[in-house]
Amino acid sequence: MPRIFPPDTNLDEQRVPSYTLPDALVCEDGSPVRSAEDWTARRRPELIEAFSRYVYGRAPNGASVSVREASRNERALDDAATHFELDVVLEGSLRVGLSLWTPNAVSRAPVMLGLNYLGNHSVHPDPKIRLPEGWVPREPELGHPAHRATDAARGAHREQWPLEAAIARGYAVATLYAGELDPDFDDGFENGVHGLYRVSGAAHAADAWGSIAAWAFGLSRAIDALENIDEVDASRVAVLGHSRLGKAALWAGALDQRFAAVISNCTGHGGAALFRRQLGERLHHLTARFPHWFAGNLRKYERAEAELPVDQHQLLSLIAPRPLFVGSAEADLWADPRGESLSLAHAAPVYALFGAPHRTAYHRRAGGHGLTEADFLRYQEFAERWLRT
């Protein structure tokens, strides 16, 4: 069934307005950035502050994290892997489940880490994977007819997480369910980590953190947990995200420099794509459908993207000099694949400051919005290039 777009959607490249991007290498006082040291000391903190204020909101700087091993299966995936079910406990009270598969043939394995949309049980049909106990998206065709997880959804997103192939190549895979960090609906910021931490005063402050920042915060807490697991090398973690969860992966990678590589798949606006192009999903489409994803301040720029103090090439610049892969799909016009590729191109001057322009990559495959097995494996190949010891 063809997707129906809002009537004011532009999918015509010829109708993209002329625009001027804010310069990643000019500080707020107008002075230029001429060195990697200057970028790190002056410009990077300015951009982190601007994205926190205007786009994603302010998350806590850290957290009290403890890790409990709930179960271990050393004969998972036909004896090729050990599967851990871990409880990541925040502030001694909020439990988030982390599923981790480590290759039995490798010690201190690098890790592909990402959030999932339906629950850890959707990653693989293994009946030992725990079902999430709280809210899940209503996806009848994927085994969730109501907002509760069921066994019918086991392995529903298996193609997005080719565990056997990753393990065979010596990589661990770790995933956590985004909804345990923050359920993906406008709940007044009362549940998950929002209910646990009160940031910037009132829950609805204009720069309070939205769901994308909450999910990004959870990815950093997963790094905290992995630092306590002997079977993996937490200094070699590549964070991967698709669509809304890829927006979170990009923001997590920008904030937390422990992520050794960052991978964005079909993330669109609020992710890798340039807001100012106004092609596909526009800012007002995002904030109308998903008001809980972003800081309230972002709504000031609905239908006025040219006035937004930042744009997404600057977000990608914040990942420099670490490896960054941006992936798109040719038919995914809603996410503006050309805008994603241009955003990466406009981040190149910052990578050049570090002498690392070769650490970025882009691909655009045929087809529509989605994370395929081929995508995942290509991203893993990229990670292998940079994360090998």
Describe the structure.
With 389 residues, this protein is α/β, with parallel strands linked by helices. It has one domain: 3-Layer(aba) Sandwich (Rossmann fold), CATH 3.40.50. The chain has twelve helices and nine strands. A nine-stranded mixed β-sheet has the order 1-2-3-5-4-6-7-8-9, with helices on both faces. A hairpin with a 3-residue loop joins strand 2 and strand 3 (94-103). Helix 6 crosses helix 7. The longest helix has 21 residues, at 36-56. The radius of gyration is 20 Å and the shape is globular. The N and C termini lie far apart (47 Å).
Number of helices: 12
Query: How far apart, in Å, are the first and last alpha carbons?
Result: 47 Å
Strand order of the largest sheet: 1-2-3-5-4-6-7-8-9
Q: What name does the CATH topology carry? A: Rossmann fold
Number of domains: 1
The average pLDDT value, as a whole number, equals 96
